[in-house]
Amino acid sequence: MDRISISGISAIGYHGVFDFEKRDGQSFVVDVVLHVDISRAAASDNVADTVHYGEVSELVVAQIQAGPWDLIEKLGSEIAEAILAGYPTVATVEVVVHKPQAPIPVPFSDVSICLVRHQTLHTAVIALGANLGDPQATLAAAVAELGEEVQILKVSPLAVTKPVGGPPDQPDYTNQVIEVRTQRSPHELLDLCQRIEAAHHRTREVRWEARTLDLDLITYDHLVLEDPRLTLPHPRAAIRGFVLAPWSWMDPDAVLGGQLVSRLAQQAADTKDIIRL
Ligand SMILES: Nc1ncnc2c1ncn2[C@@H]1O[C@H](COP(=O)(O)OP(=O)(O)OP(=O)(O)O)[C@@H](O)[C@H]1O
Ligand SMILES: Nc1nc2c(c(=O)[nH]1)N=C(CO)CN2
């Protein structure tokens, strides 16, 4: 992996075990190494395609000035976490914190800690559906747009399905399921899905009415969650053939709630009418 290194970022901080360190402050010096793919920036020559080292340096200074913490281990960890959270394209960060004026009662030139932290990657399953406009083109566009923001691991074949619920006389749906890998939190992933739905003119007036695009978050790792915005796994996924069938085509070993998705698909009432494209 390519790397960006910044060394000798210094600022006054108030970290230390002793009261006088928290009162008087002293110099902290930080080196960071960011493991990040710089090939896009190398090709485009555009700073937006890489990690801006000036911004990272300012973030490091802000962390040195925050706290105070007792330990440089804690300061280093805060710096690493802030960089990983702020820059999702950084796969790994190495942080060295030097405290050259540390209160050590013998002659010394420097004391430092070094730590290495990695991005945590999550796996999520997203179901797509559309039955207005040009559903196949919309699903292809939505998968491409998701692919700009998360890593697409698997894509199911398309399924043509009968509308389940909602107003009568709707057009057939086209459904699809994908598996993605991301550093985003579940809510950030839901936000992303809803932004893409909105960009495709999704409206919400009548429950389960026909729609240009629907993106549902089906699972996120093995997370079980219920809050006002998000329920995981998706509360109706286990009985929806239009989700289960394409999911099982994509991943025959997939499991939901302890049961094989392919078996749940066989049991779902709407599966019999599904056509695989
Ligand atoms: N796992 C989830 N995936 C997507 N939305 C969810 C999830 N859990 C809860 N929600 C919430 O459900 C709300 C309604 O979503 P939406 O309008 O897409 O429903 P729908 O697709 O018409 O119906 P259904 O939820 O039965 O698929 C969203 O605003 C979102 O906050
Ligand atoms: N066949 C089919 N029916 C549905 C679908 C869907 O994607 N496909 N989505 C719904 C609400 O999300 C309600 N009903």
UniProtKB/TrEMBL annotation:
UniProt GO BP: folic acid biosynthetic process; tetrahydrofolate biosynthetic process
Substrates-to-products reaction catalysed: 6-hydroxymethyl-7,8-dihydropterin + ATP = (7,8-dihydropterin-6-yl)methyl diphosphate + AMP + H(+); 7,8-dihydroneopterin = 6-hydroxymethyl-7,8-dihydropterin + glycolaldehyde
Domain spans labelled Dihydroneopterin aldolase/epimerase: 4-117
Pathway: Cofactor biosynthesis; tetrahydrofolate biosynthesis; 2-amino-4-hydroxy-6-hydroxymethyl-7,8-dihydropteridine diphosphate from 7,8-dihydroneopterin triphosphate: step 3/4; Cofactor biosynthesis; tetrahydrofolate biosynthesis; 2-amino-4-hydroxy-6-hydroxymethyl-7,8-dihydropteridine diphosphate from 7,8-dihydroneopterin triphosphate: step 4/4
Molecular function GO labels: 2-amino-4-hydroxy-6-hydroxymethyldihydropteridine diphosphokinase activity; ATP binding; dihydroneopterin aldolase activity; kinase activity
Domain of life: Bacteria
Protein name (Swiss-Prot/TrEMBL): Bifunctional folate synthesis protein
Organism: Glutamicibacter soli
